[in-house]
Amino acid sequence: MTTAREIMNAGVQCIKEDQSLLDAARMMRDLNVGSLPICGKDDRLHGIITDRDIVVRCVAEGRSCADMKAGEMSGHLHWVNADDDISAVLRQMEDNQIRRMPVIEEHRLVGMVSEADIARHLPEDQIAEFVERVYAR
Questions:
Q1: Are the C-beta atoms of 78 and 96 separated by less than 8 Å?
Q2: What number is the average pLDDT over the span 63-83?
Q3: Which one, out of 10, 32, 84, 113, has a CA that is 20 to 30 A from the CA of 3?
């Protein structure tokens, strides 16, 4: 059984919920990522922000990225446990059309599973099925 822990990226950095979207955009640029987990003062996962969120929910609305806080972007959050089987990870990502899945252990963020992680660990036919389910809707 392959688990989320075995396929995840463990070096995940959070943006604090009281940091600005400008900070988030700069972190994404510097880390070469398209999303960041949002962590609260309790160091627990409170949400995820994507580069698309910044464009659609801030810039396109004429708001200031320097004034808007990452915590304002929190929405419905999905995650998997570090010991969950890869099939549970796939199901969660497919059912919710999520491309990046936070991995939690003992209520703390320990990693992130991305589409690339899935692609490295699945046979080609399962990758095609995953892509169809996440992107087709």
A1: yes
A2: 92
A3: 32
